[in-house]
Structures are given as C-alpha cells and as structure tokens.
Amino acid sequence: MLLLGLPSVQAVAAELSAIARTELPAEARETLQLIRRGGPFPYPRDGAIFRNYERKLPRQSRGYYHEYTVTTPGLRHRGARRIVCGPLPECYYSADHYNSFKRIQESQ
C-alpha cells in the first residue's frame, strides 16, 4: 500500500547518486574503516540510530540506519559531514548534514 505524499522506496533509491569509495574525502574513508572495525569512534553520537526523518534514504524500519561523523579539518565540532549505514556494505555519504546523500559504491 502506498501512502499519498510519501515517496516509495524505489523512488528514493532511484534519486540517489553514487560515489565511489575512492572518491570520498580521506576523512570519510577513515570513518568507513572505523565502521567496519566497529570503532572506537571519536564522537559519542557515532553509531546512533538515524531516523531518516527527511526521507532522503529508502524507508526502512526504526533502527535500520546508524549515523557516523566524518571529521572536517579545521573544525572543533562535528561539522556537517556524515556517513549513514544500514547493514554493511550499505552506506551513504552526506556532505551537507543530511540535505543530500550519495550511495557509497565499493571498488570492484
């Protein structure tokens, strides 16, 4: 059943562009390594549930996505860059604090 006004999972997934892992900023590649190792993470919010309120990612059940900080050189706070992951290897990069996402593609 489709709810009026809400995008379908397929529509959201189709709107997302992709970025190769090798094209990510170095700090994002480091964050991906930490995610794969299970930490330790530099910020207390790393690993928190991402609720996808903006509906920019395909809709999933609560607890499916988790968010991680991508450090920004020169900033003393978390900044705007994040990686949001479902079950690995499903991860997305946001350079603008969840306003847009790119699906991270692993190298072949």
Question: What is shown here, in short?
Answer:
This protein has helices spanning 9-15, 26-37; strands at 17-20, 48-50, 65-69, 82-85, 91-94, 102-105.
Structure description:
β4 and β5 (91-94) form a beta hairpin. This protein starts with 8 loop residues before the first helix and ends with a strand. The protein has helices at 9-15, 26-37, and strands at 17-20, 48-50, 65-69, 82-85, 91-94, 102-105. Strands 1-6-5-4-3-2 form a 6-stranded mixed sheet, covered by helices on one side. It is globular, with a radius of gyration of 14 Å. Mean pLDDT is 89; it is low at 6-11. The protein has a single domain (21-105), classed as Nuclear Transport Factor 2, Chain: A. By secondary structure, the chain is an alpha+beta fold. The protein has 2 helices and 6 strands.
Low-confidence runs of at least 5 consecutive residues: 6-11
Supply the number of helical segments. 2
Helix content: 10-25%
Query: How confident overall, as mean pLDDT?
Result: 89
Counted beta strands? 6
What's the main sheet like? 6 strands, mixed
Find the structural class using helix and strand composition: alpha+beta
